[in-house]
Amino acid sequence: AQTATGEGANVATVSTGYFSSIGSPGGGNYWELTVGSAVYEGNSQAALVSDVNSGGVHEAIVDGSRVIIFGAGAATAQLRSRKTSDDDLVSGPTAATAAVAAQIDLTGDPLEKQDWVLEVGGTTYASYESADGGDPSRSDVVSDFVSDINTEGTYDAFVRPGSSNGLYMFRTGSSAFTPSVTVTPEVVEAVEA
User: Fold this and answer.
1) Does residue 188 carry a pLDDT above 70?
2) 83 neighbors 6 (Cβ within 8 angstroms)
3) Cβ(109)–Cβ(4) under 8 Å?
């Protein structure tokens, strides 16, 4: 079996918060989101998340009615109105609910006949097995990991915005967790002469 160097993942705990219901702000209104000293805005969930992701400091995703913010600093959201010259406050500010996430960026290049396994505390939450003769990529591994984690249900997983080589593993609450990724080549049995 082939082997590669640097296989696995870089894992980091990420300060995270989420808002349970950032919906449509209504005509003439917009959402203003403050994360640490950074300020983002948008007239829809998608526009707000796009502004966050284009800033290069924090990352955000939409998960149903939730908006999840990954990055350092306390976050607050408020609804403002463009109908007035001062952009008056309509409602808020509302503080984000604290949560815990891990940022997992895959390293190395997957090769055929490898098993990639993601575990937390010795429990397997996701795996990827590359086929014989296949041409696997890190995005293939990420896609399988996200699917497996979400199917299992203990955590939520999302592909990192703008990166097909990384994912966020997320859960509500404040208990930290540390995922690990191991890569094992397929065992090749010796052939007797």
Assistant:
1) no
2) no
3) yes
